[in-house]
Amino acid sequence: MGLFRSMEVFVVAVEEGSMSGASGKLGLSPAMVGQHVAALEERLGVRLLNRTTRRQSLTVFGASYLEQCRDILERVAMADQDAEASQTLLRGKLRVTAPTTFGAETLMPTLRRYRKLAPDVALDITLTDRNVDIVDEGFDIAIRIGELRDSRLIARQLAPYKMMISASPDYLSRQGIPSHPSSLANHDAIAFSPAAGSPWRLERHSEIVQVVPRVSLTVNSGQAVRMAARAGLGVIMQPAILVRSDIQTGLLVPLFSDWHLRERPMSLVYHRDRRMTPSLRSAITFFVSEFGAP
Fold first, then answer.
1. Domains in the chain and their CATH numbers?
2. pLDDT one-digit tens code per residue, 22-32
């Protein structure tokens, strides 16, 4: 017999004043109620109840044990309630990592909406272009751009990462507007360090052009690449989300708008063995809804 169940039966038997009264409340036979009390007495090696055919009364030890049982059962009930609440309430801390540009330009503006959904969830966000190991480094969620290789992770596909080629009006007035992607080989390019040396691939109908631009400046920050382009230092290929506002205001001019640049896959990933708490589930659902494929 379970110890906590026997304690519960003992408390009810005392409160109801008899084994038969407890049996009706607990849905047990009077004999089974008696067995629970007897099991406690055998375990403790001391009598809890003085029983006659007409009445029962607590022994001195039984009265003390009754209060201890009540206290223990109340604590167990509170622990159960806390456990149940933890499965329904959105609270706690979530660690999220995302690429720097995406995180600053796209992720951050959405967090106000998530805060309304889950005001008691504390978000710890790390923006880095390093491909962090979310298992070893203790992250709950990561947003990744590019192909995935870690089989330990569960991936949810997001909308692909779109790229755009642009330059400042000042640069184009000095160097001329490239009429064809192949002419980019004769233009100064500003490269984001992790992608420096990678060819730029453009497609239009059946025509495919792959060109390695003449890199005159390499920077390890997407924002710095953008500012260098605004200063007229060269042509850039950067995420559309990074240059969109500059193009709208005329600080940068889009190039090859009738060409298609290969999009990069983007995914939300989390560890397959991670316990799916309500907070983690809510964040995954929110991010997939916000950034998922249309």
1. 3-86 (1.10.10.10), 92-161+265-291 (3.40.190.10), 163-261 (3.40.190.10)
2. 888 888 998 99
